[in-house]
TrEMBL record:
Stored Pfam families: Acetyltransf_1
Record-linked Gene3D superfamilies: 3.40.630.30
Species of the source: Flagellimonas pacifica
Keyword terms, alphabetized: Acyltransferase, Ribonucleoprotein, Ribosomal protein, Transferase
GO cellular component, one term: ribosome
Domain N-acetyltransferase: 1-149
Keyword Ribonucleoprotein appears in the UniProt entry: yes
Signal sequence range: none
Protein name: Ribosomal protein S18 acetylase RimI
Amino acid sequence: MEIRNATSSDLELIVPLFDAYRVFYDQESNFDAARLFLKERFSNNENVIFLAMKDDAPLGFTQLYTTFSSVSLKSFYILNDLFVIPEFRKKGVGEALLNHAKQYCQELNYKGLALETGMDNPAQKLYERLEWEKDTDYFHYFWKNPAIN
């Protein structure tokens, strides 16, 4: 297995994974919308995607977005998406993607990585095993624009 930085030329490899990731989170499958969303992120240089590959076949991906901490005056990444195709789960793919993201963050001297996940997501055990700490000090709030579904 190889973990590599994806580029816009990898779009057609990523779209089915990204669509499956969205379906996992109860969204309707929509390859065209997924393709457009990813194409815009690449075009605007707004994301970093790492792709897990084996024998030229994609096994999974993780997508990072940059944000900033005003308090520490440092950049950090939001690990927004992590997905491994079902037949390769529990085989080290997710762990390799997470570790690659951590290494990348260290190379750039970023403050760290943040992620959020569903309370019932079994990947929590993996995160904790890899030294991610569950935030128990802060509440996270989200305002939802009523004009957007």
